[in-house]
Amino acid sequence: MVLSLTKNSSPLDYNNSKLSGSLPDKLFGTDGIRGKVGDLLTANLALEVGVAAASVWQEFKSPQGVVIIGQDSRNSSDMLSMAIASGLTSLGLEVWKVGLCPTPCVAYLTKTTDAIGGIMISASHNPPEDNGIKFFGSEGTKLDKLLTSAIEKTLRKNIDGGIQLKSSKCGKTLEQHHLVKNYSHFLKTSLPSDLDFRGMRIVLDLAWGAAVELAPSMFQAMGAEVISLHPQGDGDRINVNCGSTHLGKLQEAVQKYGANLGFAFDGDADRVMAVDAQGRIICGDYILYLWGKYLKECHLLPDNLLVSTVMANLGFELAWQKLGGKFIRTAVGDQYVQAAMWETGAMLGGEQSGHILCHHHHFSGDGIQTALQLTALVRQQGNCLVSLVNDSFTPYPQVLKNVKVENREKRLNWQDCIPLQNAIAKAEEAMGNEGRVLVRPSGTEPLIRVMIEAQNENLVNYWTDYLVKIVQQHFN
């Protein structure tokens, strides 16, 4: 590979100045690069990202090597996958395309093969018109900030004509969908060998996304009767009124079919939400509590420690502490949960949204594995998730509302809005020790999230509506 510091145009033959002018100040967000297809995410950008990523991996990892690429079912995923593969192979790297698969599958395969990195093409729970590029290091964890910063810096220099990346040797792109079987074998062997799900009826909402092939086959292999909702990959309908962020249809189906429980995945199946036989939503807080309690009883939870985020319900935290457990909160985002787990040695952590990390099995959030493990726990304790939830904790009333704020600068600098700060202070003073306020911008969508939690439901509703109106008045 040759890096020449010139003012010439990129070796890629199109107008890069237009691409440069359209880039935001910060390209990498909390979960890779994400945005609207045709706006931020284009074939040109994906190609250049592939070139930049190849040069960085070659510098920090190896001049030669394999990069694994998976994707969800969005119509744009093929285009982005091919474009980024072209960029990677243009500098001599080899690409293994595993096709439609969950994000944790890419993480697992990257860790268990000789790959120098992995890439998942997905926008997770976002609507069909969005997409994203997620990077993984050779350890199967999300690429560290040093390397993502290097990729972004290299990308910007390249498209501005500041450097020219060339190679006389091109790599190959190989179709390797059969590798997904290695991941499914890993999922099965992570369960107790003497356990099966025979006699259990389970509803799966597959969200027209990455879980459509794998999740039903895993539960069926364990002997469960499976009823699948939104069961094919459909790029026009992925996440639309279904999946982990729209649970109404799953709740109806669980009760209609008399199922033991149900699970809803997001578009790339790295998170999951559950529903019990009564149709109640079982969020990540409950999953962490029940799984954590089981691991604690088995003496498999160091320091009885759980890691969650500022979104975790206060009722969950207090109940866990009552069991003698320790509880750490981080900022919202699985990378912050992961960092705290590495730092403290915690083995279980996650988010209320259903992104669960268990270091006993995997270093990536894994919706299918979480669903299998929760089902196994229910099986071992009498087939009744309802009873387990009833015996767990009572959540404090909590309301989360999203306010659309298209202006990115205003959204990211929301703390500079004095009227909003005054309104937050007013709400906090009124609720005192009986409630809490959380306002934050989404890291993946053009939203400001307003969350109020308190013992008194009337206070929750009043102050949520109050703060939402303030955000609407001053940000739109």
Q: How do the strands and helices of this protein lay out in sequence?
A:
Elements: E1 2-4, H1 16-21, E2 33-36, H2 43-60, E3 66-71, H3 77-90, E4 94-100, H4 103-112, E5 117-121, E6 130-137, H5 145-159, E7 164-166, E8 173-175, H6 180-189, E9 201-205, H7 214-221, E10 225-229, H8 248-256, E11 261-265, E12 272-276, E13 281-282, H9 284-297, E14 305-309, H10 314-322, E15 326-330, H11 334-344, E16 348-350, E17 356-358, H12 367-380, H13 385-390, E18 398-404, H14 408-412, H15 418-431, E19 435-441, E20 447-454, H16 457-475
Parallel strand pairs: 3-4, 3-5, 4-8, 9-10, 9-11, 14-15
Antiparallel strand pairs: 1-7, 2-6, 5-6, 11-12, 12-13, 16-17, 18-20, 19-20
Helix pairs in contact: 2-3, 2-5, 9-12, 15-16
Write up this protein:
With 476 residues, the protein is α/β, with parallel strands linked by helices. The model is unreliable at 1-17 (pLDDT under 50). It has a 6-stranded mixed beta sheet, with helices on both faces. Strands 10-9-11-12-13 form a 5-stranded mixed beta sheet, with helices on both faces. The protein is globular. It folds into 3 domains: 2-177, Alpha-D-Glucose-1,6-Bisphosphate, Chain A, domain 3, CATH 3.40.120; 190-390, Alpha-D-Glucose-1,6-Bisphosphate, subunit A, domain 3 (Alpha-D-Glucose-1,6-Bisphosphate, Chain A, domain 3, 3-Layer(aba) Sandwich), CATH 3.40.120.10; 398-475, Alpha-D-phosphohexomutase, C-terminal domain (TATA-Binding Protein). Helix 15 runs antiparallel to helix 16 (457-475). Helices cover 38% and strands 21% of the residues.
